[in-house]
Design brief:
Structural class of chain A: mainly alpha
Largest sheet of chain A: none
Largest interface: A-B, 48 and 49 residues
Order of helices and strands of chain A: HHHHHHHHHH
Strand content of chain A: under 5%
Number of strands of chain A: 0
Oligomer: homodimer
Shape of chain A: elongated
Distance between the termini of chain A: 55 Å
Amino acid sequence: MPGKKASEAERREQILRAARRVAMRDRLDGLTIRNVAREAEVSSGLVFFHYSTKDALLEALLEWLLERTIVAEIGPDILRHETAVEQLLALLEQELQRLSMHRDQLELFFDFWVIGRRDTTIRTMISQALDRYRASFRPFAAAVIAQNPERYADMTAEGLALLVVSVIQGCAIQVIKDPNPIDLKPMLQTVYALLGRSDAVEV
Amino acid sequence: MPGKKASEAERREQILRAARRVAMRDRLDGLTIRNVAREAEVSSGLVFFHYSTKDALLEALLEWLLERTIVAEIGPDILRHETAVEQLLALLEQELQRLSMHRDQLELFFDFWVIGRRDTTIRTMISQALDRYRASFRPFAAAVIAQNPERYADMTAEGLALLVVSVIQGCAIQVIKDPNPIDLKPMLQTVYALLGRSDAVEV
DNA sequence: CCACGTATTGACCCTTTGGTCAACACCATG
DNA sequence: CATGGTGTTGACCAAAGGGTCAATACGTGG
């Protein structure tokens, strides 16, 4: 006995929201069509009606995840710093802070990562998101080098951006490695020392 | 119609080897008891006879993987360097090189990583392996700081070791991000510039 | 050469899951 | 008020996979 009707867009949103809740709670291996349907309080058939296949639903979910996880927001908190080095460091610190919160999103990302080894579409989506992410660090890296060429000789903007992003991604692994979160402060302090700033910072 | 008998240890080894081949070829989602049995040319029942459950087989497989993947070998190639900085950098370079080869083992590791979010035993095994890995960098980090305290003020051995390991793990993600391998050289060059060595190196 | 423990087999069970589909209810329109 | 298109349902299907188990072959000790 079918229930009320709803518009295409509404229902898709409703189902996607349910999928998000399920995924955040039970991870990807708990994300079954039936679970999503139950969470959205609709039938399993309806999920297939709006998302023809589970992969389609996964891709919609990943799109949402990527644009709120693998994005470096360049706001006034970053740009208000004077020197390029300080801006880059502020960006790094901001991203590390974002990692420490949002562990659940991080874990979900790694779930998708593993699926992506198999599914070309997902793999490509992730790869492009990570490329964009790294690209957003590049101008800052270039500015750092330009501002003090003799000290930062032998560096390239590409290399520095890749280094910073690698540190962030490595820290992502550290953050979700075990239940009790790790303290990234000593590491951040070390980076500051290497790149030239020395004032202590909160993490 | 049962086949030949074999000793306990022999059969376990034979099955584990088969499991390794299957895992390296088809990833963890292709690692079914039936696949392992076929690869080992035994029956599926026999796999359960020697590994009472699939999890037990997975743990045996993970143990093998960890001790050949998440281990920093400190050989003469590292220790022959004069300064502590050079030793640490040589170690870093060696590990990055190891990443670039062994992509398959890396991907397998991430498969286990995701499973480990669910399975406490696997999670603990991975966590401990990573802790040991980081610990093996610690003495080198400490030596670096001790050798030039005024330059590396504000650093701690713990922080530097964590930084180096984070870089390696971040690069691991870069390495398997997309099919065609990335070039880590510019990044390594940047690290050399930051930590003080300037001669070019092969990767 | 007999008997007993054990290694080995493969059919079988049960659960889960992605996906299909015929039936049915809802709503707009004529 | 009929009617057709479409949103919606839940039963059903097939495949896959972990695990069980009775039957059976093998080897060894008596």
